[in-house]
Amino acid sequence: MSRLRWAIPLAVLPVIALLAYGFWTDPRGEVKSPLIGKPAAPFTLSTFTGTPVSLEGLRGRVVLVNFWASWCIPACYEEAPVLQEVWRDYERRGLAVVGINVQDKDDAARKFMEQFGFTFPNAMDVGGKVAVNYGVYGVPETFLIDKKGRIRERKVGAVDAEALRGHVERLLAESS
Amino acid sequence: MRRAAAVFGLVMAVGVLGSGLALAAAPVDEQTVHAIATQLRCVVCQSLSVADSPSETAHQMRDIIRERLAAGETPDQVTAYFVARYGDWILLAPPRRGFTLLVWVVPFVGLALGLVVVAVAVRRWSRVSAGRAAAPAPEVDAATRERIRREMAEGGP
């Protein structure tokens, strides 16, 4: 009987450990995208300036695809200057940046782009098909596509300037 | 000229009718859409299915399910489309293979173990009480018996 007295707390411990693990784990942060290393889904969208932008048209270049929305506060506002800066610094070296605006209002999205002086192409993803094709959970989310058209990096949440520059440098250095 | 217009009108009518028939030929069963949506996790919610969430993302995902079914995909293919992009995470019920098989098996193993423990305990307890019942009643001496008789006759204190 004295042996059984120890068995009860011993049986409870693994349950507590499992619950503790579950409650301390971010249900989204830990999820790895199954798309890393896979070919990026093609898309053709009409930009806010009325010109079409397609992934196919950017083949052979390193492409940064950023999903954003004007209502995404503060993360999208934090990373917007970084995206514009990275685009400005690496445009001549062959980086393409495409902003994909999701679940937004046209005027609010335009105001956002104006606020940060976006000069790279931005398009609205009406119906959210491109976002689902990229397995997007929320905004912001950023994907880096290599010269061969494969998804290589994915960042959920605001991009980190240093980390992003590092990834871009590395992918630009690869041969196409 | 009028004849040409009539022919054009006829062609248009046939075209509209034809596309109407084509749509009617492949109707998407809303129950199938709902059934798939209940299995998928709404990606912007906490523990809600795509069927239950009022969010715009869930609404868009339901539209995508409907569209893919209309294009002739089977429900399994539609689910696989989402799993390929979001991983098993998108499924509200963990798949019955690999590590997540544990989630399905452990409760039943636990139940079986619990039943064994209860069965063993019940048997042990019944043996103890049976042993007690078989024990002879304790001896009561004549003086005590006399006191009990007297107190009962008095009707207690």
Description:
The complex is a heterodimer of chains A (176) and B (157). In chain A, the strands form two sheets. A five-stranded mixed β-sheet of chain A has the order 5-4-3-6-7, with helices on one face. The mean pLDDT of chain A is 92. Chain A is α/β, with parallel strands linked by helices. Chain A contains five helices and seven strands. Chain B is an all-alpha fold. The longest helix of chain B has 34 residues. Chain B is rod-shaped. Chains A and B meet through helix 4 of A and helix 3 and helix 4 of B.
Topology diagram in text:
The complex is a heterodimer of chains A (176) and B (157).
Chain A: H1 2-24, E1 44-46, E2 52-54, E3 62-68, H2 75-90, E4 95-101, H3 106-116, E5 122-124, H4 129-133, E6 141-145, E7 151-156, H5 161-173
Parallel strand pairs in A: 3-4, 4-5
Antiparallel strand pairs in A: 1-2, 3-6, 6-7
Chain B: H1 2-25, H2 30-39, H3 56-70, H4 75-86, H5 101-134, H6 142-154
Beta-strand content bin of chain B: under 5%
Counting DSSP H or I runs of 4 or more residues, the number of helices of chain A is: 5
Biggest chain-to-chain interface with counts? A-B, 18 and 16 residues
Low-confidence stretches of chain B: 14-25
Question: Which term fits the overall shape of chain B?
Answer: rod-shaped
Multimeric state: heterodimer
Report helical residue fraction of chain A.
Answer: 25-40%
CATH homologous superfamily heading of the largest domain in chain B: Cytochrome C biogenesis protein
Mean pLDDT of chain B: 82
Question: Helix share of residues of chain B?
Answer: 55-70%
Order of helices and strands of chain A: HEEEHEHEHEEH
Query: What's the overall geometry of chain A?
Result: elongated
In terms of DSSP E residues, the strand content of chain A is 15-25%
CATH architecture annotation name of the largest domain in chain B: Orthogonal Bundle
Q: Would you tell me the structural class of the helices and strands of chain A?
A: alpha/beta
Distance between the termini of chain A: 71 Å
Structural class, from helix and strand content of chain B? mainly alpha
Radius of gyration of chain A, whole Å: 21 Å
- Order of strands across the main sheet of chain A: 5-4-3-6-7
- How many extended strands of chain A? 7
Q: Total helix count of chain B? A: 6
